[in-house]
Amino acid sequence: MESPRTRRHGDGSPSARTLALTVLGEYVRYAGDERVAAGAVVGALGACGIGDAAARRALGRLGQEGWLRSEPVGRRTRLVLEPRLVRLLTAWTHRLERAVDTTPWSGEWQQLVLRPPGGVWRERALLEQQLAFEGFGALSPGLWCAADPGGVPALKGLFREQGLASHALWLTCRAEDDAELVSRTWELDDVRRAHEEFLARFGGRGVREARDPEGAFVARTRLVHAWRGTFERDPRLPDALLPRDWPGREATRLFVDAWRALRAPADTYWRQLTVGMKPLASSDSDG
């Protein structure tokens, strides 16, 4: 089963599938829900420039892959997040929240030794993606480390789901040379570029200015989608291990300020979609 990893079109815009995951994470799971009207998600994607047919194909594909299921509610259809998607989106939300704060640092690294038999790996790509997403870098095959301990609980839950818990050994350690460990484990130049690209795209006043609910919804959705794509490449190293001119600090402030400015009007538009107060772009008898 393929993981719902981030994909982009050739022009750099997000695919319908990955944008749907952002909507489900930001407006459904973040609010504590696990069910949503299919038409609300289709309408949300329509506001972001995704056509009705493409939106429905994306949701259908997520259903075929076991991330969602649909259930009829009268003449309409409701999407139900499967437990594995709930866990994944919850981990994304926690990662977003942790990105706001500086990673605490006592000089102690989180270390994971993971060497299961080859046949035990059911979704290796998903697991390795989530390790990187939670800030873990590979020192060598089967040996991972991170400065941020915040993602360990989510990873332990994923290992239990994958039947890998008995093959994982969690340790803490100190390095003789922290800077050398960082240089061997992560390509910080790539992370720097990701933050600089985020700043270049969202650094103007426009994204933070008050706007109509639909405009705020589109801006917030694209902001969160782009930020997730940025920080999933960032190992969340503590300030002590980063250059003084690290652009991640400014990028984080930009994200937080913009998100706070857009939150209320974007939520207003989402409520309109979910209660049917705003008509969808096309007739939607099953939405």
Q: Could you characterize what this model shows?
A:
With 287 residues, this protein is of the alpha+beta class. It has ten helices and seven strands. It is globular and about 60 Å long. The strands form two sheets. Strands 5-6-4-7 form a four-stranded antiparallel sheet, covered by helices on one side.
Summary tags:
10 helices; disordered C terminus; 287 residues; three-stranded antiparallel β-sheet; four-stranded antiparallel β-sheet; globular; alpha+beta
**Sheet with the most strands, sense and barrel status:** 4 strands, antiparallel
Counting DSSP H or I runs of 4 or more residues, the number of helices is: 10
Q: Roughly what percent helix?
A: 40-55%
**What is the 3D shape?**
globular
Cα-to-Cα separation, first versus last residue = 27 Å
Strand order of the largest sheet: 5-6-4-7
Order of helices and strands: HEHHEEHEHEEHEHHHH
Radius of gyration: 20 Å
Low-confidence stretches: 5-12, 277-287
Structural class: alpha+beta
Average pLDDT, rounded to a whole number, is 86
- Strand count: 7
Name the beta content range.
Answer: 5-15%
What is the topology?
Layout (H helix, E strand, L loop, with lengths): L15 H14 L5 E3 H10 L4 H13 L3 E6 L2 E6 L1 H17 L9 E6 L9 H10 L3 E4 L2 E4 L5 H11 L5 E6 L4 H8 L2 H15 L10 H19 L16 H28 L12
Antiparallel strand pairs: 1-3, 2-3, 4-6, 4-7, 5-6
Helix pairs in contact: 1-3, 1-4, 1-9, 2-3, 2-10, 8-9, 8-10, 9-10
